[in-house]
Amino acid sequence: MKKIFYSVIIIISFTVFARAQDVNSKAPDFTAKDMDGNTVHLSDLKGRVVLLDFWASWCVPCKKSMPHLIELYNAFRDTSFTIIGVNVDTQQDKVKEFEEELNADIPFPVIFDKDSKIPPKYEVEGMPTTVIINKDGIIKYKEVGYTNELKEKLDKTINELISQ
Amino acid sequence: MTKLKAIILIAIGCASLILNGCAVVQPWERERLSDPNMMFDENPLDKGAQLHFLFIREGTEGGDGSQSGGCGCG
Amino acid sequence: MDKENSAFFLKAVTFILLIYSSCYSQDIPENELDVRINSYFDNFRVNVIYPQVSITKKLSDNTSISGRYLSDIISSASMKANFQVDGITSATTRKQGGADNTPDEWRNEFGAGITQKVFDGILSLNSSYSIEHDYSSKTIVSALSYPFAKKNTVLQFSFLKSFDKVFPQIRTWVRDRNTTTFNAGLTQILSNNIITQFDGTYTTVSGYQLDGYQVVRIIENSNTYRTYEPVNPDFRIRRAFGIRTNVGVTRDFSLQLGYRYYWDSWDVNSNTISAKLANNFSPVVSGTFEYRHYWQTRAFFFKPIYIQPEQYMSVDSKLNSGYSDEAVFSLVLKGSKIYDVPFISSDKLSLTGSFGFYRRYTDSSDWFSNLQVLYAYTLSAGIRYNF
Fold it and tell me: What is the pTM of this model?
């Protein structure tokens, strides 16, 4: 009986852990155009700390996290840090509407990933998903959702990675 | 009893695998589901008010569901 | 299932839930103030106005609390024949009813609750206390919802316990009514525009379950009748199972279909079918139209006329066979900066309003109104503010 129990547990654990853990793994590369028409090639950003933000206009927690990301981008503007937004809306004008609701323009590049080619590479499990990649192209931080402590956590992680 | 335990474990194991495989819709595909008109009982107070007078007039209750929606938000 | 297997089953399920808990989390309610006024008017001369206020406050990322107040003004619970009843409002005069001379038709309900994230699920505990001059109720509800498979599947469980006391003004007794309810539900996303929910409820009710003001009249001859108190079985088991599906037909229009089957130990069986159309007319205006049809069988002891006293007797039209139809229109106006008007230019605000029409037909006349058909109108208006 115990053997059957532990065998089932191992099978179940495998199915869970196989899909969930990718911190400390190499960040999947991608190439896409941002909303200004500029080509963004992730591997060109090696040597910089990159925050990838997966978001959508229909996502309520994204409306809360975006002002914090704008603050972070402006605070670390003159360092080796940058943010790339990956928007998964199906209509581009939704991004403009989102900016109008926020009463702020998003200052960092935003990729309009209408066909959602990038999220599966990063195994996005919810919106928003925040991924931080270090200067060597390794994922060092991944968080789903928004919390009140998000800004402090991101601040701390970015400072640590910039100084490495 | 041992056979029953084995059946329970296998059923739970299968359910776990099925639930894991039931990730039919990815979080970034939930734009339509996130709309308030796709939620069940978007306003629970309205629903409560309706059930209040229906119970007084019909005397049956239950099986009415709960507030739920399909947003893929974290 | 014996104790040993039950314990094993519980441990196994708990372990599975913990394993899955690391990945997908639910959201707890946000800060919100909701104020609404609901009203009900029917041709049985029952008018009810029930304002309610509800407030939810997030204490942290994992905890929120809520409070609620509801008032039934002129509740239908005590409009009964043995008082002199005002023809329009059905309220009793100040000289009758209630030990302190206030009308019996004002019910106050207070509720409070707490919601807590537990691993990636949500556990909530709510309680409510309702009081009027002839009825009191204390209720506690505990609910757990847990997501699986990237929130494509959500399981919900709840447990309710209610302790009521019935003490009609025209009777010398006080009777208890206790209710225990178990509910389980599953919400499943089937595609990127279809979501389905299954829900099952099992309820046991013990104690006094009829209306304390109703009387059974047994006609003795052409000139006289005797009145008796209704008598019901002390125990009732209620069961219900429902399914509903929401389909996003176009970008702005959705169709929700539902069916519920109910059956109980008093032989009341009912079927409910419903359809709800919802449309976003613009980014700030949305509306719904809902239609519901219901039909039920009568309780085994219910008779339109009793010719002699029986072990169980009731005149409550809720236990009679019949059917009903309901149609409800509602509109939601969301606040937006596009309105250059103070207050509604806030996107944290939404205004709601609804109008409903209800018609119920019973296979024999109601004991009090002598009518087989009841018509009712419902009106409600509300404000919801996220702060």
Answer: 0.84
